[in-house]
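Example record for the data management plan.
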Amino acid sequence: EVRRDRAERVAPVLGERGRWLARHRTDWAPTVAPAPEPGDLGTYGTAAERRDHLLAVRRRDPAAARDLLLAADPSTLRGEERAQLYGVLADGLGPADEELLERALDDSRQDVRTAAAAMLRRLPGSEFASRAAARAVPLVRVERRRLRRVLVVDLPEVDPAQRDDRALPAAPSGTGARVWLLLHLVLATPLRTWEEALAATPDELVALPVADDLRGRLRARWLGAARDQADAAWARALLRDADPGERVALLPVLDVQERAEHVAAAVDALAEQGGRAALTHVDALLGTCPRPWPPVLAAAVLRWLARERSTDTWHADWALRTVAMRLPTDAATEEAVRTAGLARGVDDPWRARVLTVADTLHDRRHMTEELR
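Corresponding structural encoding:
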């Protein structure tokens, strides 16, 4: 998988042959292609070509891409293709896309409506979010029961005529239609609305028990909303009692330094725990932190390299590949990694792996120096 930011950095230095090769990769082509003329989607032959053209326009002129979609005749496009074209709006999504996404809520195809609703949820100031809040807030209240405060949640009535409800995907087996609707209303409601309506902070709301065994489901939707709305205060509140999978979902909401501090503390705790599960979690957590890693995270990773004893070589290789590509390349870090490797016994399977990380840091540093 090629990262878009990497493609954009490499594109300016590609020669003629490099640009020719890049144009044959669908994930690179929009980045290295000449600036496109908006034109008409109907002039492009295949569905893939139309999507690539729209994506190229979107990355250079978002307004022109919206105009292309607005001008497109839905009757000339297959439903699957409409879903793919609307999906392009996720690249650089902003308030100006709301009108077009509102139109997509009326599309005849379910996946188009669902994709549009998912993008509108990422716009807390949208009319879609306001409509969800108007329905969700009256359903949730704080009551005092047996000397403690409890969140009490009523279930909404399902209204087939409700336009927004047509965007709901099918409920999973075992989940009633009213519960499913409630969960999606909560997911789309701006998180700040709950703070105002219930007169409580994110920390207080997340800590409250919820009646009728709905706490886990309500928490999962608040977590999704924190991710979609990039709300750091709610992410912090939810992280305090998060499982490993929830951490990975929430950490990208935090700024780079705060994220690194959180991951460093988690890596130290997991190094103490040890074992295959801990190694899997280390691998996932490290992947949330872009390079260059701040000193606090680099130091935690060095401590982990010195202590890890897991026999799960498959996950070890994945984690160490991330470490080798994201640790700082200064000589002191390389030496610390090499020392950690040499300190292991000759029969320790981690010895060669850690020394390979040190060699990679050495190569990265010298390649960087050569390119300066």
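Summary line stored alongside the record: The CA atoms of residues 176 and 183 lie 11 Å apart.
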